[in-house]
Structure formats: C-alpha cells, structure tokens
Specification:
By secondary structure, the chain is of the alpha+beta class. The chain is built from eight helices and seven strands; from the N terminus they run E-E-H-E-E-E-E-E-H-H-H-H-H-H-H. It binds iron/sulfur cluster and FE2/S2 (inorganic) cluster.
C-alpha cells in the first residue's frame, strides 16, 4: 500500500505545531501501525531528517505507553484496541491518515506525538494505592473474597493508564481512569481502610492538574482499549458523595 500521512510535528510544548505530509510507500497490511511509523522514521533518518517522536513500549496492548489520535479517534478505528495493536490491513491503498497527539491541557506535548502524562502518576500518588504493613507474608486465605467480587475488581484494575479516555472527552476528564482505579480498590476489603481519603484526594488532584468534569456522554468508554464501562464513574461518584457526607469509615 501507498499512504499519505498527515502527522503532527511540534518541537516542544512552547512552540506551535503543524500537520506535515509524508508518504509511506510499500506498507504491508501485516505491519502494525507503529511498525509503519518505524519505517517512515527509518526513511527520515537516512535523509538526515528529524525522526517523528512517538511513545511505545510493550507493543502488546499491556503497558499503556502508546497513544495516538488516528483520523480523529483515540487509538484509531478498532474498538478495544491500543494503537500498537492496530494493523495496517485496517486501511486501503491510497488512504490519507491523519495522526495527532492526545490533546488535553493536562497532557502537554513534549515533542510531536509524545505528551506528558505524569499528571496520571500524581493522581495515583495522591491516593491510588493501599498501605501495607511490612512483615511476613499474610496467609492467602486470611481475607476471603468471593469470585464475583474479585472478578469485578479485576475488570476495573485492567486500566492501563493510556489516557485515551481524556483525549476523547470534550471536557478532557480523567473520570474513567480515576473511576477504574477507585472501583478496583473500593471493591476489595484491602482498599476499605483508605477508601474515604482516597477518593477525595484523587479527585482534588485531578482538579489541580486541569482535568475537566464528566458530562456522561460516554466517549471515554467508546475509545477505551480495555473497554472499561462508565459504571466505574458512577461508582466513583457514589464513593465521593459518601466520603463527603461521612458515610465511609475514616
Ligand atoms: S480507562 Fe481506558 S482509556 Fe482511560 S486510561 Fe484506563 S485504559 Fe486508557
Ligand atoms: S505500547 Fe504498550 S500498550 Fe501500546
């Protein structure tokens, strides 16, 4: 396939960016989207030009490092799929593909398609953890947890922190990300000790980072590569209201 790529180039967060056009020739349908960009970059390097910066790590849909807006869709056209798992067979010879970074005030552009998502780390540091006393390993059966409960918690824990939910939301809200982290811990008894403090601290940190609020339109759920439902946002809101009115244990 031969494709026309319109790719966002930006030197740093302080310099205005622009879309630049590149031709990707001899693209195999079996290539992943990121492999296609690797080939484009090899061509640029051979011409002594600046390679296009983009993030990736596992390239297996696990780590959450990759994140591109492809033709206006966070992670591209395949549902439940990270952009590293998107394949070029999804496109046709002669297609034009526009590739942009996540766009949100709380995710400033570092370079080209790379954004700074450390705001998510600060939200997790504010409360997305459980405190554990050091000592011998506890008995695995000391806290019985039903299969239904553990599966529901793991369905929320599957969030990879990619930030697509923020990129797709017109309010740049981090509610699906936070809702999945808070649900995961609120569902399990180990998370109950810090439950009240956690939800308040994480929401306050998200506000301080410049993320918006949720208007329940579901774009986040539609682009989430792990297909995390917005029911997690409802659970987070219930946790928050209960925390504010003292209905959770201190
Ligand atoms: S909720 Fe989904 S889209 Fe948002 S950070 Fe987690 S995995 Fe990514
Ligand atoms: S590179 Fe790890 S999820 Fe895409």
């Amino acid at each position: 396939m031969r494709l026309l790529l319109k790719i966002w180039r930006q030197v740093d967060r302080y310099t205005p960016g622009r879309l630049e056009e590149y031709t990707a020739a001899d693209v195999s349908p079996d290539m992943s989207f990121l492999e296609m960009l690797d080939v484009v970059n090899e061509g640029l390097v051979l011409q002594a030009k600046d390679a296009i910066a983009f993030d990736s790590d596992c390239r297996e849909g696990i780590c959450g490092m990759c994140g591109l807006v492809v033709n206006g869709l966070a992670h591209g056209p395949d549902r439940g799929t990270t952009v590293c798992q998107l394949h070029m067979r999804r496109f046709k010879d002669g297609d034009t593909i526009t590739i942009e970074p996540w766009r949100a005030k709380a995710f400033p552009v570092v370079k080209d398609l790379v954004v700074d998502r450390s705001a998510f780390d600060r939200i997790i540091a504010a409360g997305g953890y459980v405190s554990v006393n050091c000592g011998g390993a506890p008995d695995g059966n000391a806290i019985p947890i039903s299969k239904d409960l553990s599966e529901a918690a793991m369905d929320s824990a599957i969030c990879i922190g990619c930030g697509a939910c923020v990129a797709a939301c017109k309010n740049a809200s981090a509610h699906l990300f936070m809702g999945s982290k808070i649900s995961h811990l609120a569902l399990l008894p180990q998370g109950h000790v810090e439950r009240r403090r956690r939800v308040v601290a994480m929401i306050e940190q998200a506000d301080a980072e410049g993320f918006g609020s949720c208007s329940n339109e579901g774009e986040c759920e539609a682009v989430c590569p792990k297909e995390i439902p917005i029911a997690n946002i409802a659970r987070m809101t219930r946790e928050y209201v209960k925390a504010l009115f003292g209905a959770l244990e201190k």
